[in-house]
Specification:
Layout lengths: L2 H5 L26 H25 L3 H18 L9 H17 L10 H10 L8 H10 L32 H8 L7 H14 L9 H12 L14 H16 L10 H13 L8 H6 L1 H7 L9 H8 L8 H16 L5 H6 L1 H6 L10 H4 L2 H13 L6 H16 L5 H6 L1 H7 L8 H11 L7 H14 L9 H6 L1 H7 L9 H8 L8 H14 L7 H14 L16 H10 L11 H14 L7 H6 L1 H7 L8 H8 L6 H16 L5 H6 L1 H14 L5 H8 L8 H16 L5 H6 L6 H16 L9 H14 L7 H14 L9 H8 L6 H16 L5 H6 L1 H7 L8 H7 L8 H16 L5 H6 L3 H5 L1 H6 L9 H11 L5 H16 L5 H6 L1 H7 L1 H5 L6 H8 L7 H16 L5 H6 L1 H7 L9 H11 L7 H20 L5 H10 L3 H26 L4 H5 L1
Helix pairs in contact: 2-4, 2-5, 9-11, 10-11, 10-15, 19-24, 20-24, 23-28, 29-30, 29-31, 30-31, 37-38, 41-42, 43-45, 53-54, 53-59
Length: about 1150
């Protein structure tokens, strides 16, 4: 449209008006040549010409122009005292000259570019193609900040009545018509008229003095805040466009109650908000923001069309980009804060939601003041309430709401309550994190208690903001959460539609799993902490349980809250009704119960997600559970200290524990850990469970299955522990019995069964059915020392002293006590010995052995009875496929068994006749239920060397000798007597990972260096034992294995037979033994010779045994027989000479 042609036809008379205020002395922005002043004076006249040109084309009413001239004269008289002309006659004369020249120019094709006073400025500032269009020139000068006009007259409303009927009744002469035209420009159907008003609006908003009544309402506030000059001679600090920006910032400071904030008058506040509202359509109208963001607009929003607030929204979306200028970001933030105070400052939001606001009566609440009603937060709450109630809100409005909800979550400073009440928390913990919602999440973390205490008013402000933004309905509203959890959503929740409320539920289900990342975990828990405190913030829960909550818990509307109702009270009411029986009545609907269970499963992950629990147990959490920081540990800690809790906390923990006993699936972490066991053994129970507690019973029964992992076992053990404390926590027991469980009965029966088994009783005193149930109980109790109260009470002191850093569960404390058995107090030592005795009889009760060796048991012992697992593992200990950890555990158990024959049930049974016969003196000296430190086994070893044991006992001792020959630790007496010698003479051998008899060999080699008699005796006993069986000497056997195969293969092992074979081969010069074998044999002969000297036979029986077990037995026996024969012959001969009988005596 070519406005210049229409401007040439302008008719009528136009009075001159004051244009420019007095330029303060020294001001560089407003001083210039008279030539520039003349050019600047022209735009107002041109603007008026354009207005009347359009009027003339529409109605051509000359009487209207006369009214306009009268209006101009009247306006001149009103504002003359404020303009420059009042104090500057020269300027006034120039104004009159300009007005006089207008009458000469209006009949010709006059152009602004033809004015001599403006030609140089236009050449310098505006493109040449715009010179023919006076309005385009005017816009160019406005955009360049070169035009400053001071007043605008009004026109008759009748001139525009054909286009804008809403403005026909506006009062004349006060500037209201221009405001009305701008406000209703969207209703203009004529394109040319609409474009004209739009361009005129740009000119109007370039100077606050052109806005109707603005100067009168805000004069005092402008002066007080030093936002510019409105009186002659006063200093003008800002440009005219910056005056409104300065007032807006003052309004924001007042709302945030900043230090030194000026209280702006109410009528000025309304004027400021009105200006912001009128400029909400096109960002060009906010002159300060336009000039601040001109470059950023080109950078981020180049393709975004101006109008309808589109450029504003585009810039808002890029506000936290690194390349965004700070000045533009500041201007955008101010604009957003104004929107937070009055939603109408957002053109797009007000337009999109206009009908919905009217439909749901969101702007007619007479109980609220107008300022509160206009707040963005009130609008969001009202419309969100409609959405959550299932009402229809237009998609366009919901889209706008989501944009501004995201805006509130991104920048905490847009909420005055947060800025006001959380100032100290921000300064202490969250400074420097203002971008992309990080400050808000930092405050949430403080609110959770992770970074210290938080002021209640700040906590309340945070809760209110979360309700306003409602991120539970769409996770994308929370930008910090969205960015942190993007990878998790793409992997774990990709099957859920983007923006669906179930995304948050999906993230909670994957909390503490491998798919969860740390940053997402923190952001999620921070948000869920506040969602958990208001049940309405979970949209799915609210939808399914709205009617139940209203019926059972007396709830209010979605956007209504009760100060008297504590956080989480509604949900606590719901879950109490969720598990009511049919007899109790008033149960939840099925859909609501499902959602309540879902929330319970999620909140079990963190005690802070249960507001009632945290509120009542805050003191106890700090007292008993301050060090429990892992997921789920705090609730377990409270359950462990149930008897120590205060009454309120004990009640809520007890109620929650009862719910767990009925529906263990509430324990999400436990269910996740036990999923393999559930899938393998309990899937039918898990699928069909209805308030019966069957799933936990199934897990307990399958606790030792191969699918059971450590986490699941610990969780099930914890559940068993709390069941022992109170029968209410055992659902089935609670429904069947009315008195507490007595663990002493289990212990008594267990002792009876053990004694009958060890004594080979013909008839068991405990029935088969009872034994089966008893075994289940024993297996359960073996995992944790706390499940055996008698043992636990006896060893509390030792646990605190020796195992204070060892966690309960997995039998770790029991294992610690076993390893430190020699340091235990007598009472604890006695109980641990009893426990070991039971475990050796039944290996399945040895939790650590079963846990560490579960894979090896599956590999080697699938066909073995559970009680004989250890025996099976010992037989396969040296297999190449044996797991090192399991091998180490087997060795530990062998060491334990060799300390006392009573801990080796197989040996005890095989040698039950030999032990009293040969080792009675040791038994008489021993005390009941204390270890004999291997004395009985050492006694049996000596008798084995003497070949005096029964066959069954001899076989068991041979096995023990062969095992201890490879590992000196399996010989308790050797380890005790030679501890110093091993550490000084055989350090390297003892430190070796593989035990191959090198320590024993070292002691044998250093026999002459041994000073301690007890150690020397043990080494000599080893030499004596090796004579009886070469397998007892692993070094010699390894060296001579090939020779044994070649020369002694037909000779059975044992009783020194193979050793005698090798000695004979050594003496036979026809046989060539392996060099290593020959060397080792010679060493052994020397050792035996030395042993014979230092340890002579103690009696004829011992001497005879030494001869019989000697490798030179045949030689010795031959010599002895030859000597006896010689003596016999000599006796025959000598008897004839010493006692001769005469013939006479013979004849008699």
């Amino acid at each position: 449209m070519n406005y210049s042609l229409e401007e040439n036809n302008l008719s009528g008379t136009l009075s001159s008006v004051p244009i420019f205020p007095t330029a303060p002395e020294g001001s560089s922005r407003l001083t210039g040549s008279v030539k520039m002043a003349d050019c600047i004076r022209v735009p107002l006249l041109l603007l008026l010409m354009c207005i009347f040109l359009f009027v003339h084309l529409i109605q051509a009413q000359n009487n209207a122009i006369k009214k306009l001239i009268a209006g101009v004269d009247k306006m001149q008289n009103q504002v003359g005292g404020l303009g420059l002309a009042a104090g500057n006659p020269g300027v006034d004369e120039r104004n009159q000259g300009a007005g006089a020249s207008l009458s000469r120019r209006r009949s010709t094709g006059w152009k602004l570019a033809e004015e001599a006073v403006c030609r140089d400025d236009l050449t310098r500032l505006c493109p040449k193609h715009s010179w023919n269009n006076n309005l385009a020139v005017l816009e160019c000068l406005q955009d360049r900040k070169e035009v400053y006009v001071s007043a605008l007259t009004e026109v008759s409303p009748s001139l525009f009545s054909t286009q804008i009927k809403e403005c026909a009744a506006e009062e004349l002469g006060k500037g209201y018509l221009v405001s009305c035209l701008v406000d209703h420009r969207g209703n203009i159907t004529d394109y040319q008229c609409n474009q004209y008003i739009t361009k005129m609006t740009t000119i109007v908003f370039s100077d606050y003095r052109l806005i109707c009544g603005f100067m009168d309402k805000c004069r005092d506030d402008i002066n007080t805040l030093k936002c510019g000059s409105i009186s002659t001679g006063e200093k003008d600090v800002h440009s005219q466009g910056e005056v409104i920006a300065c007032l807006e910032k003052g309004l924001v400071r007042e709302a945030e109650d900043q230090t030194g904030a000026h209280v702006i008058r109410e009528e000025c506040k309304k004027a400021i908000m009105r200006v912001a509202e009128l400029s909400s359509d096109d960002f060009h109208l906010d002159r300060y923001l336009y000039f601040s963001c001109r470059d950023d607009r080109e950078r981020f929003c180049e393709n975004t069309l101006a109008g309808e607030g589109r450029v504003y929204k585009c810039l808002f979306n890029h506000k936290f980009e690194d390349s965004m200028s700070e000045r533009c970001r500041e201007a955008l933030t101010t604009r957003q804060k104004l929107i937070a105070q009055d939603y109408k400052v957002s053109y797009s939001l007000a337009k999109a939601c206009k009908s919905d606001l009217r439909k749901y009566h969101c702007n007619v609440d007479t109980s609220l003041p107008r300022a509160r009603e206009a707040r963005l937060s009130y609008l969001l709450l009202c419309l969100e309430s409609a959405v959550h109630r299932g009402r229809v809100v237009s998609g366009e409005c919901q889209g706008e709401m989501m944009d501004y909800r995201r805006m509130l979550m991104e920048d905490f400073s847009l909420s005055p309550e947060i800025v006001l009440h959380c100032r100290s928390e921000i300064e202490s913990h969250c400074s420097g994190l203002h971008r992309k919602g990080r400050t808000l999440h930092c405050l949430m973390r403080v609110g959770r208690g992770d970074m210290g205490a938080i002021d209640p008013s700040c906590q309340k402000a945070l809760q209110t903001l979360i309700q306003e933004a409602d991120p539970g309905a769409d996770y994308r509203i929370d930008r910090a959460l969205n960015e942190a959890c993007e990878s998790v959503i793409q992997t774990a929740c990709k099957h859920i539609r983007s923006g669906d409320p179930m995304i948050l539920s999906c993230l909670m289900e994957h909390l503490y799993t491998e798919k969860m990342v740390e940053d997402c975990e923190h952001r999620l828990l921070e948000l869920q902490y506040f969602i958990a405190r208001d049940w309405k913030l979970d949209p799915i829960l609210y939808k399914k349980c709205q009617s139940d909550a209203s019926r059972l818990c007396h709830t209010h509307g979605w956007n209504e809250t009760s100060e008297l109702m504590p956080p989480g009270a509604i949900f606590s009411c719901l879950y109490r009704h969720a598990y009511r029986s049919l007899e109790q009545g008033r149960r939840l609907s099925r859909d609501c119960k499902v959602e309540v269970q879902r929330i319970l499963h999620q909140r079990a992950l963190d005690v802070k997600l249960d507001p009632e629990l945290q509120r009542r147990c805050m003191t106890d959490l700090g007292k008993w559970c301050s060090e429990k920081t892992e997921a789920g540990q705090e609730l377990e800690c409270l359950q462990d200290h149930l008897d120590d809790l205060v009454a309120d906390c004990k009640e809520v923990v007890g109620n929650l524990t009862e719910l767990e006993s009925e529906d263990i699936q509430i324990e999400a972490l436990l269910m996740r850990a036990c999923d393999p066991v559930i899938q393998a053994h309990c899937h039918e129970v898990a699928d069909n469970q209805i308030d019966s507690g069957d799933l936990m019973d199934c897990l307990v029964q399958n606790k030792h299955q191969k699918e059971m992992n450590e986490k699941c076992a610990v969780g099930v053990t914890h559940f068993q522990l709390i069941q022992v404390k109170d029968f209410r926590f055992s659902y089935k027991f609670k429904t069947a019995y009315t008195r507490r469980i007595e663990v002493d009965v289990v212990i008594c029966l267990s002792t009876t069964v053990r004694n009958d088994t060890l004594q080979d009783a013909k008839e068991q005193r405990v029935s088969v059915k009872c034994r089966k149930q008893l075994r289940v109980e024993e297996v359960e109790m073996s995992e944790d020392i706390r499940l055996e109260p008698e043992l636990y009470d006896s060893c509390k002191t030792d646990i605190n002293k020796l195992c204070q850093n060892v966690a309960f569960g997995n039998a770790q404390v029991i294992e610690c006590l076993k390893e430190n058995k020699r340091q235990l107090l007598p009472r604890c030592h006695q109980k641990v010995f009893k426990l070991q005795e039971v475990e050796m009889v039944d290996s399945e009760l040895d939790y650590q052995l079963m846990r560490v060796c579960k894979n090896m048991i599956r590999r080697f012992c699938t066909e073995s009875d559970g009680k004989n697992v250890l025996q099976c593992l010992k037989q396969n200990k040296n297999s190449e496929m044996m797991d090192p950890k399991c091998k180490q555990m087997i060795t530990k158990r062998q060491i334990t068994q060799n300390t006392d024959y009573r801990l080796n049930p197989v040996l005890r049974k095989a040698c039950k006749a030999d032990i009293p016969k040969f080792c009675d003196s040791i038994l008489k000296k021993a005390k009941d239920e204390t270890e004999l430190e291997g004395q009985v086994i050492s006694c049996l070893k000596l008798k084995y060397a003497d070949q005096r044991l029964s066959p069954d006992c001899e076989d068991q001792i041979r096995v023990i000798l062969q095992e201890s020959a490879l590992d000196y630790r399996l010989d308790p007496q050797l380890q005790i007597q030679c501890a110093e010698e091993i550490s000084s003479l055989c350090t390297e051998e003892a430190a070796a990972q593989e035990q191959t008899g090198q320590v024993e060999e070292c002691l044998k080699i250093n026999l002459l260096k041994l000073k301690k008699e007890g150690c020397k005796k043990e080494v000599l006993n080893m030499l004596k034992e090796s004579k009886a069986d070469i397998y007892v000497d692993p070094v010699l056997h390894t060296a001579c294995a090939l020779d044994i195969k070649h020369h002694c293969a037909a000779i059975p092992p044992g009783k020194g037979r193979q050793m005698s074979c090798l000695m004979e081969a050594l003496q036979d010069k026809r046989i060539r033994l392996q060099p290593e074998c020959k060397k080792r044999l010679q060493d052994r002969i020397d050792m035996w010779s030395y042993a014979a000297k230092v340890a002579p036979a103690e009696g004829l029986g011992d001497l005879a045994m030494q001869v019989m077990t000697s490798p030179s037995k045949n030689y010795i026996l031959t010599v002895i027989c030859a000597g006896v024969a010689l003596l016999f012959m000599m006796g025959l001969l000598c008897g004839r000479f010493t006692k001769r009988v005469t013939q006479e005596l013979k004849d008699r």
